[in-house]
């Protein structure tokens, strides 16, 4: 994942900014560009770090076109509105399209039409304007601070992660931002231009009385389940084709070539793998599109106290492994973490990358995700230490928010019926960037890796949005059956995941047992003191 940043500052002298957290996101290449003078006392300096994933050769940034326009891109743009061949770099293609844009509307239309997970900064030279934003779901982090920093004469900073200990806010997704300078008084203003809405309207009609399991042979359900499978398969495919054919280690010796014909033998793709229905379906779908000789890492994190038995996710993970294609090499990585290790890495790294997220829930999800994504553990099959070298990670996030997977959805349905449930799911998708995605991106990217979310693919999300809720879930049916019914059906009927299709949801903080490790009596929404204060845990001992 790349790190992108611009600073608006009042003197042309070099900035005193420590870019270390930004650079961690892009281990392949780092640079700064500027300062560029906007007025006689307002300058902009860009910084970027690149994790090169797309195109035939590693592509450096920023992209500067013949007119002097500058683009910084973090993330992925998939073929859709733009034609991007396997050997093209998505940023190069976007920069060419942006160059043809004259007005705000041109730029907004272009950005709104993109498919993919991205954050970007674009300096349009002829208008002296900066455009910036995140994809509409907010799958990449972008923070801003307008806190003044006298030593570095900063007026504003926009960055993927916190820099210089200033206080930051997450940028709204779903909006294009435009910063223009006001020449007369050397100040600036920011305009907000909403992205063009591209979601398909839902067909409004009355729900049937029949339970969803009695509708399985109904032709509408059959059609929906086939399209659903097809859409999810395509979403997975978009995210796994064209990844480098070299792992992060072998990439270093390849003279910038990302996809030589003979790739390395290591896994280039990993799945954050709880063994629950969401991540197991992803594994089965990846298996259908990646060549059979490609190994895949399955990263499974579990937190242990001295006496505890393996938590639920370890058990479901190993069980799900037995349902996956035995012809493929699946590297099931057991990532076992104890209290000392958790406290050490939380204090030294994790709490900084979580910022500005700071609740108890952010702490437990973010910490579990960090250890899972790091991928250091024991290889289950061979019982030897193993470090995942894959730079692209798939996550099953987003299924529950669209298919009514959380237990809170049951209470909503019981009190308010189908309409209330549908409204709640809409609300959850609207807040997913603020609640999950910015944080998860900062966590995974801090390890120089990139998280991808097939359940949040635009085409898939639009399709799911267009079909009525009672074809997706039926919360009159029991736990482990009714929630995410459509996904469970597809898993059982088309992917042979008989056992895995029946697991009830266990969110990462419970399934991995991180929430129990410190056995504190806290509410998930409380501010987490472990993230906001410095403790003396910044060392490791062997007592656990
Ligand atoms: N213990 C774990 N180890 C590794 N990755 C995990 C673990 N738990 C969850 N994840 C990853 O995080 C994603 C979102 O987690 P969430 O807490 O929503 O679990 P979930 O909805 O129950 O997903 P799943 O059905 O895959 O278990 C999962 O789909 C999976 O990719
Ligand atoms: N890591 C990223 O954000 C990737 C940027 C761009 N898609 C590339 O592959 O070069």
Automatic annotation (TrEMBL):
Domain spans labelled Glutamine amidotransferase type-2: 2-193
Residues reported in the UniProt entry to bind ATP: 272, 395-396
Active-site annotation: 2
InterPro entries: Asn_synth_AEB, Asn_synthase, Asn_synthetase_domain, GATase_2_dom, Ntn_hydrolases_N, Rossmann-like_a/b/a_fold
Recorded coiled-coil stretches: none
Annotated keywords: Amino-acid biosynthesis, Asparagine biosynthesis, ATP-binding, Glutamine amidotransferase, Nucleotide-binding
Binding site for L-glutamine: 90
Gene3D superfamilies in alphabetical order: Glutamine Phosphoribosylpyrophosphate, subunit 1, domain 1, HUPs
UniProt xrefs under SUPFAM superfamilies: Adenine nucleotide alpha hydrolases-like (SSF52402), N-terminal nucleophile aminohydrolases (Ntn hydrolases) (SSF56235)
GO BP annotation list: L-asparagine biosynthetic process
GO molecular-function terms, A-Z: asparagine synthase (glutamine-hydrolyzing) activity; ATP binding
Pathway: Amino-acid biosynthesis; L-asparagine biosynthesis; L-asparagine from L-aspartate (L-Gln route): step 1/1
Protein name as annotated: Asparagine synthetase [glutamine-hydrolyzing]
């Amino acid at each position: 994942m790349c790190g992108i940043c611009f600073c608006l500052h009042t003197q042309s002298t070099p900035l005193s900014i420590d870019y270390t957290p930004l650079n961690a996101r892009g281990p392949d290449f780092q640079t700064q560009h500027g300062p560029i003078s906007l007025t006689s006392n307002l300058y902009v300096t860009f910084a970027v770090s690149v994790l090169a994933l797309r195109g035939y050769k590693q592509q450096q940034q920023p992209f500067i076109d013949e007119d002097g326009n500058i683009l910084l891109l973090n993330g992925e743009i998939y073929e859709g509105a733009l034609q991007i061949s396997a050997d093209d770099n998505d940023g190069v293609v976007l920069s060419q399209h942006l160059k043809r844009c004259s007005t705000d509307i041109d730029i907004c239309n272009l950005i709104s039409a993109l498919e993919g997970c991205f954050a970007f900064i674009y300096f349009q030279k002829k208008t002296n304007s900066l455009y910036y934003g995140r994809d509409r779901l907010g799958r990449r982090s972008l923070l801003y601070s307008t806190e003044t920093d006298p030593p570095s004469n900063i007026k504003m900073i926009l960055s993927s992660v916190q820099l210089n200990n200033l206080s930051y806010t997450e940028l709204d997704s779903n909006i294009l931002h435009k910063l223009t300078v006001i020449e007369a008084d050397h100040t600036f203003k920011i305009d907000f231009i909403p992205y063009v809405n591209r979601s398909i309207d839902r067909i409004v009609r009355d729900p049937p009385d029949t339970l969803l399991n009695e509708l399985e042979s109904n032709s509408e359900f059959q059609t929906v389940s086939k399209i659903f499978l097809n859409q999810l398969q395509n979403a997975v495919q978009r995210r796994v084709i064209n990844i480098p054919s070299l792992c992060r280690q072998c990439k270093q010796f390849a003279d910038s070539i990302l996809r030589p014909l003979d790739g390395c033998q290591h896994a280039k793709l990993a799945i954050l793998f709880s063994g629950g229905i969401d991540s197991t379906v992803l594994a089965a779908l990846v298996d259908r599109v990646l060549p059979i000789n490609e190994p895949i890492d399955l990263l499974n994190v579990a937190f242990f106290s001295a006496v505890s038995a393996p938590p639920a996710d370890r058990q479901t993970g190993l069980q799900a492994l037995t349902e996956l294609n035995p012809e493929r090499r699946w590297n099931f990585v057991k990532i076992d973490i104890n209290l000392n290790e958790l406290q050490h890495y939380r204090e030294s790294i994790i709490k900084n990358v979580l910022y500005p997220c700071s609740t108890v829930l952010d702490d437990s999800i973010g910490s579990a995700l960090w250890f899972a994504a790091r991928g250091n553990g024991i290889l289950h099959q061979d019982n030897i230490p193993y470090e995942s070298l894959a730079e692209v990670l798939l996550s099953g996030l987003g299924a529950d928010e669209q298919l009514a997977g959380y237990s809170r959805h049951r209470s909503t349905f019981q009190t308010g019926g189908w309409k209330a449930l549908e409204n709640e799911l809409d609300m959850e998708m609207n807040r997913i960037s603020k609640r999950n995605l910015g944080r998860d991106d900062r966590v995974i990217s801090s390890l120089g890796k990139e998280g991808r979310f097939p359940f949040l693919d635009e085409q898939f999300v639009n399709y799911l949005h267009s079909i009525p809720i009672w074809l997706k879930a039926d919360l009159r049916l029991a736990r482990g059956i009714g929630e995410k019914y459509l996904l469970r059906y597809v898993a059982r009927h088309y992917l042979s995941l008989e056992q895995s299709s029946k697991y009830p949801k266990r969110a990462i903080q419970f399934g991995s047992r991180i929430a129990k490790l410190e056995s504190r009596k806290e509410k998930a929404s409380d501010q987490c003191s472990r993230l906001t204060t410095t403790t003396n845990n910044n060392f490791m001992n062997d007592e656990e």
